[in-house]
What does this fold into?
Amino acid sequence: MALQVIVGTTDVTQYVQAGSIRIKRAADGGIGTADFTLLEPVGILDYARVDYANTDEAILAEAMLPAVVEAFAPVEIRDNGQPIFKGKIAQVRKALGGSHLSVSVSCQDVVADLARVLIYQYSVNNTTAGAIVAWVISQCSGVLVNDASFVVDNTAISTYEITGKSALEVLKDLAGRRRPGSSISPGACIGGPGPARRIVARPMG
It folds into this structure.
């Protein structure tokens, strides 16, 4: 297994502490997480230790990782070139120890962005679960790839109404209604990291 970690457009794999990558996926289609630690050598001996606060600040200013690894930066983890996690940094913790800067990173996958997409009002009659999913995907530009070709669900729905729910709540509700052999999953809708958006969706005409 050859893991690769990319933050933004920067490959930080060489800094990843061995064995520190932990990926957790939610079985119910909820938010998944990834945690890892990065270690960057720093030239502590290059500074006179007169004022520890100023010295630490100078070290952090010259290090590469603090400028790249920031909250909300997109993260992709690959296994042999294939993406196994896409999301954003939720928390960063930095610590200087010995000759290294340690950066502990906690991420949430882009399912978290679906919780920030608000569908204000929507109603439809005589349709299918798959058709509703396709419509929800169309409202999540920048969060989901606008491609519903993977959705296979002809579960008949006579009436469906959404009022003030997140896209994630709607997709999870529809996933619970699917028939055997159909395929709807909030996680499967994710096409890649993108900016979270608050979208007010209006009824279809």
Summary: The domain at 3-109 is CATH 2.30.300.10 (Phage tail proteins - horseshoe like beta roll fold). Residues 52-62 form the longest helix (11 residues). DSSP finds five helices and nine strands in the chain. The longest strand covers residues 82-97.
